[in-house]
């Protein structure tokens, strides 16, 4: 069994109601201990050969490596984009009590 690692997962949503709905679902399902809904940002990217711009709402999702596969599946099934940004970064340090809380809040109850 792999050791549990805290992760910071990043994604962007097209608007605040969609971001709030996804964040709520992730926390209620214990796939995330906390989701920080950030201020809108302006994204510039190339999509299908065309440079696009969009206002998006970034989410900072705190979870664990143990829950990542289920978190990814939940985001992919609920995200309105064809190809959502989904980046997981390992948390290599932090307040031990906070990281223990993240692990505790994301434990599967089933």
From TrEMBL:
One of its GO terms (molecular function) is copper ion binding. It comes from the Bacteria. GO terms for biological process: response to metal ion. Pfam families: CutA1. InterPro entries: Ion_tolerance_CutA, N-reg_PII-like_a/b, N-reg_PII/ATP_PRibTrfase_C. PANTHER family: DIVALENT CATION TOLERANCE CUTA-RELATED, FI09726P. Belongs to the CutA family. This is CutA1 divalent ion tolerance protein. It comes from Accumulibacter regalis.
């Amino acid at each position: 069994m792999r050791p549990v690692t805290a992760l910071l997962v990043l994604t962007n949503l097209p608007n605040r109601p969609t971001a709030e709905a996804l964040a709520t679902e992730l926390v209620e399902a214990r796939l995330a201990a906390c989701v920080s809904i950030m201020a809108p940002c302006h994204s510039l990217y190339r999509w299908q050969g065309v440079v696009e711009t969009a206002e998006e709402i970034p989410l900072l999702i705190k979870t664990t490596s143990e829950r990542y596969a289920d978190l990814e599946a939940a985001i992919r099934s609920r995200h309105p984009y064809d190809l959502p940004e989904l980046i997981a970064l390992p948390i290599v340090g932090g307040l031990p009590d906070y990281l223990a809380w993240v692990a505790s809040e994301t434990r599967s109850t089933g």
